[in-house]
Amino acid sequence: MDLGSLDIEKLANAIVVLVCGLAAGLGFRSGRKGTDKTPQASPVGTVEVAAALVDNRAVASLTGEVAALNINLMESRKVSYGHAERINANLQDLTEAVEKQTAALVGLKEEMIRRH
Amino acid sequence: MIIVRVYRGVADHFPIRVSEWVMVWPALGMWLALQIDINMFTTSPSFTTLAEWGSQGTWALVVAASAICRLAALTINGTFKGFAFSPQIRAAASIVGVVVWSQISLGFFVAYMSSGGALSGAVVWSTLVLLEIANVHRSWSDVGKNARDR
Q: Does the ipTM surpass 0.85?
């Protein structure tokens, strides 16, 4: 190997090291700054990660909401049952009052017939 | 199942890693050629400098190591999501690729200059160096993204 070729080797290796270092440095910089426009991996993985994040929070929140709704429904049912009981009692009282009035009217009618 | 996981990792990343997958072929192909054609370095003066720098067996080991580095990097990448250093492994594999292909290209060029080899060899093999430099840029960009996100 003569001196001329040795110089070419050193020069070529220096150029390769320089260009490679430049490519690595610029790549690292663009990646860190987020200016790199190279395409990303298939979105399948991203969707999986997003779904996992939504599941963790949304399901816990939804469970709490459903439990609170159940408690509200039970309380509403108790209140409605009380109202229905009261309405039934009132209706019974009204029925009895109507029956008494009917009997009184019948008595009055018989009295009027006797006098005439 | 690990086989399905590796397959999914490779298949999902293949479209954006195609230039790195392509570079597996010259490494494996050259290793195979050096194994099959045991007198390759004596067939042309273009191989004179490479033969001076190392035997066929040595060069076969070098290109095989390059192929194994690349295959390992591409298999790990995307398969094990919890492993944070897969871009660094890809970057290292690309740098190994630049070193190997640049030395082979240089060997052909020096042989052209000093031993009457063909210049076409240097041109063709240096194409691989350019591709590997592009891979270095892309993989180091992923290293940068990784550093930013952590």
A: no
Q: Which residue of B has its CA nearest to A6?
A: B110
Contacts of A36 in chain B (CB under 8 A): 141, 144-145
C-alpha distances in Å from residue B135, one per residue of B21, B64, B96: 10, 19, 11
Q: Alpha carbon A10 to chain centroid distance? A: 65
State whether A5 and B114 contact (CB < 8 Å): yes
Q: CA-CA distances (angstroms) from residue B83 to A97, B48, B78, B105, B137?
A: 85, 44, 9, 35, 21
- Quote the tokens at residue A99: 């029956």
Whole-model pTM: value is 0.64
Q: Quick check: is A19 in a domain?
A: yes
pLDDT of A26-53, one tens digit each? 999 998 888 666 655 544 444 544 555 5
The alpha carbon dihedral of A46, A48, A51, A52 has a sign of negative
Q: In this structure, is residue A9 part of a structural domain? A: yes
Q: Name the domain count of chain A.
A: 1
Q: Is residue A29 domain-resident? A: yes
Q: Between A31, A39, A44, which is nearest B143 by CB?
A: A31
First to last CA, chain A: 155
Spatial CA neighbour of A46 closest among B58, B69, B149: B149
